[in-house]
Amino acid sequence: MSETETLLEIQDGVATFTMNRPKKLNAISQHMFDHAFPDLVDRLEADKSIRTLILTGAGGNFCSGADVGRMGPDSQRTPEQKKNGLRQTLGWIYRLANIEQPTIAAVDGIAYGGGFSLAMTADIVLATPRARFSLVFGRIGLIPDMAVTYFLTRVIGPKKMKELAFTARNISAEEAIDLGIVNSLYAPEELMPAAKEMARNLTCGSQVAIAQAKQLINRSLDSSQMEMLEAEVEAQPPCRDSDFHAEAVRRFANKEQRLYDWDTMTRAAKAAE
Length: 273
Hints:
Layout: E1 6-11, E2 14-19, H1 30-46, E3 52-57, H2 79-97, E4 103-107, E5 110-112, H3 114-120, E6 124-127, E7 132-134, H4 148-156, H5 158-167, E8 171-172, H6 173-179, E9 184-185, H7 188-203, H8 207-220, H9 225-240, H10 243-253, H11 262-272
Parallel strand pairs: 2-3, 3-4, 4-6, 5-7, 6-9
Antiparallel strand pairs: 1-2, 7-8
């Protein structure tokens, strides 16, 4: 294990978490499973000055999944011990997917297996034209895990999910766009600047409203219409009581510049290029 297997940079409310094992295509080591990712989630939950998270990989690839070198028959542990190990991993996956901060996955190169799963926990996925995705689990006789059967199925539907799980084939960046897996494509040299610009812009929004909206949208996948209406009833008052809302309404009433205007921020960034 190396202390440099992952890197965490925090600047102006944006945390950038980089998987830093380029020689291993950023495969997830046992230390990353047991410490780096849980520690990241702990930090995000505790530090509200962090308002956005970017997940990325070093060296031209996102993540090749779990390190196959740590796999193989395991006769030293009982079946229940093996299950408990997986439950521990799924614990931080659940927490990562449901943190209050919006998350952006910046995917270059391969996002295979657990790397694909990790990308799917993000709220927004940006990628390069050379990005490739695959549920490679089937190539070594495993099922897709790290909650990708939940997240990806809800994006592409069960029939397409079955095809990708059964075949373990590659998905090009263009197909990923068509399937709704990726939001936007950028040239490799533009990927991280675009991700950071988006992340910075998101920090300008209402932290309360974004967190509530994220929670509502996540809940909508498993809730009835009436349940969602009631959830909206519960979520709106904290937003209306926030300082952000009060200032935004004051500016509107006085015909002043909007407190949060995505289109204006985007145009300004393009004009500065």
